Branched-chain-amino-acid aminotransferase
Amino acid sequence: MTEQKIFLDGEFVAKEDAKISVYDHGLLYGDGIFEGIRVYNGNIFRLKQHLVRLYESAKSILLTIPYTIEEMTEIVVESVRVNELKSAYIRLVVTRGVGNLGIDPSSCKKASVVVIVEPLALFKEELYETGIKIVSASSRRNRSDVLSPKTKSLNYLNNVLVKIEANLAGVPEALMMNSEGYVAEGSADNIFIVRGKELITPPGYVGALEGITRNAILEIAREQGYEAKEEVFTRHDVYVADEVFLTGTAAEVIAVIEVDGRVIGTGKPGKVTNDLLKTFRKIVEQDGTKV
């Protein structure tokens, strides 16, 4: 592998030289947005959809990205090329930029753009064969009428606290409920339950991010004849489901075999989950932008 290069505000720099100011409002206030994107064998999976979501997030918080979406596409593609990686994880970050210590974003004259490309595997491959155990977190999801989950912002402390609970419980992921007790998502993943021919995932208004992988699985499931829908459900519905799985850019599609000590289904990854993962891993090399 060549020396890692980070895109930082118009140029590629060595990893150790990729620095931002301590006055950047992304650091001071979590004022910014990001996307996590995967590259599979030289194909950036659904880059267009990721960038559309990025620019929608920016518009929602009145953040001006200093590049057009077409220019950003080229920046991301070139970031993969210069790092000479065929399969990788991309972290695209846009901060509000350098300002003063006040909270007013008008002191920030220009947003800062960072693109990091490096190898990443969230879960070990054997876990896709065995499935994972998870627990419910006591930390609740931010209210979606206060901070929309559609805005993928740098304000990720809510998710970090849930991940801490997973770590303390000795499991790789934890389940987050909203203030009404409905299941929202994991710390970094969407959740699906399977009941017969039904696949159900929480709708965005309960606090779930409308993930790119989540949407791809909804499409695949419908093509395979399942009734795939967005619907609210509780932990009880998770406990008694035939199958449960998580989806995400880093996680892909991974089976959950136990939740809060309740064994899901047979205690092994189910047929529906395995079939969806198999199909998903076929499309990721074709659906997207070639490097």
In short: The mean pLDDT is 96. The longest helix spans residues 47-60.
